[in-house]
Design goal:
It contains 6 helices and 18 strands. With 392 residues, it is an alpha+beta fold.
Length: 392
């Protein structure tokens, strides 16, 4: 009885310092009997920090009586006196952020985000697992929710840890479905709370003409005549592996002689739909992108990864040509100026050396007088030497 009273008082103390009732739950244990690790900890905060260091951990339970931290995979809860449980990361709402009202259409909702156009995908109030989740699946979800397009597909519970009970797994959409449930998927999952699929939906759509949506049709959008992001069959081409040979094939297919440049990173504007091709690897002599090796899997392709081209003779190239001619003129002028400075310095140096050589030559021509062992006469003996000598 004393231990129960002590545990209750202890938990009440912790209930004062926990971040929020939604983040830490008092007198609740998660996945009882199924811990992936355990150790002694000072409190639930230290227990949560340890959980954040272990990738497999999605939730934790801290037993106050034994000061033991249990790491869990999942949040199936049941009442347990003296236990504080919580997620690996507290939802954004517990960090003084205003969580947006969930956007829903029928059984499909977005949750966990601070903006209305993004969040974890929820179907029938349960998360969707991120296995095989891609931009085609995200496009269907955004379309079903009424958004004009999609920017990004998210994985690994980007918008907060979710329940370990999922509604769908291994979702594989073609991209033209009107309901996420119409896509191939599995009802049985092997996912945990850190594997929620999510989306970032586009608030504005790129207008794609109907003629550009025909099979094998190449169009340039976002730029001027002869320049723009490359769309194939009405869908953007991903910039992975994009270079000059690929751009040459596109420009020649559009009637130009070739490409003067290629662009990446959605140079002519973001896209709002899923991609048609990725890792295009043309030789340069193909008649269409369909003849070039490419990938049908578009991993890593998002709204800001569209490939583009600038064709020879395009309006952008002419503008760049004027700018290029100006740059060439300035460059040549600068080079001439530097050359004149170098030549002038060389001439001055040569003239100066000639003067020094002339002075040295004239100085060598002057006569030189040298005196070796000079005879110094003593004035006292000079008179005696001048007198005639008489000998007997």
């Amino acid at each position: 009885m004393k231990s129960i009273i002590f545990s209750t008082i202890f938990i009440q103390a912790y209930s004062i310092i926990v971040p929020s009732k939604d983040c830490f739950k008092v007198n609740t244990i998660y996945n009882r009997g199924h811990s992936i690790a355990q150790k002694t900890a000072a409190g639930p905060f230290e227990c949560q920090e340890w959980c954040q260091l272990v990738r497999r951990c999605t939730h934790f339970s801290f037993t106050s009586a034994s000061q033991t931290c249990f790491l869990r995979q999942g949040d199936r809860s049941e009442p347990k006196l003296g236990v504080v449980s919580g997620p690996k990361h507290c939802p954004p709402a517990t960090l003084n952020q205003v969580q947006a009202k969930p956007v829903c259409n029928g059984s499909l909702c977005l949750g966990g985000s601070t903006s209305k156009n993004s969040g974890n995908v929820m179907v029938d109030d349960k998360p969707v697992c991120d296995d095989d989740w891609g931009l085609e699946d995200a496009a269907v979800a955004c379309r079903q929710l009424g958004f004009p397009g999609v920017e990004r597909a998210t994985k690994e519970s980007e918008f907060g840890t979710v329940s370990s009970s999922f509604s769908m797994d291994n979702v594989r959409c073609r991209g033209n479905e009107t309901d996420l449930k119409d896509c191939y998927h599995r009802a049985v999952d092997d996912c945990d709370g850190n594997e929620a699929a999510g989306v970032v939906c586009s608030m504005a759509a790129v207008e794609i003409p109907d003629e550009c949506k025909e099979d094998d049709q190449i169009c340039l959008l976002g730029g001027k005549n002869g320049a723009g992001n490359v769309y194939y069959g009405g869908e953007p081409v991903c910039h992975n592996g994009w270079d000059f040979p690929d751009a040459n094939v596109v420009c020649r297919a559009l009637g130009y002689s070739g490409a003067s440049n290629f662009t990446i990173r959605s140079h002519f504007g973001l896209s709002s739909t899923h991609f048609s091709l990725s890792n295009v690897d043309c030789r340069g002599d193909e008649n269409s992108l369909a003849e070039c090796p490419h990938d049908v899997k578009r991993e890593g392709c998002e709204a800001d990864t569209v490939a583009g081209v600038v064709c020879v003779g395009s309006s952008m190239e002419r503008v760049r040509g004027v700018r290029g001619n100006l740059e060439i003129f300035l460059g040549v002028s600068f080079a001439v100026l530097v050359l004149l400075i170098v030549v002038g310095s060389a001439v001055v140096w040569k003239i100066r050396n000639r003067k020094l050589a002339y002075l040295q030559k004239t100085s060598n021509a002057l006569p030189r007088m040298a005196f070796k062992n000079p005879i110094v006469r003593n004035p006292e003996t000079r008179d005696m030497q001048d007198q005639p000598q008489i000998s007997f």
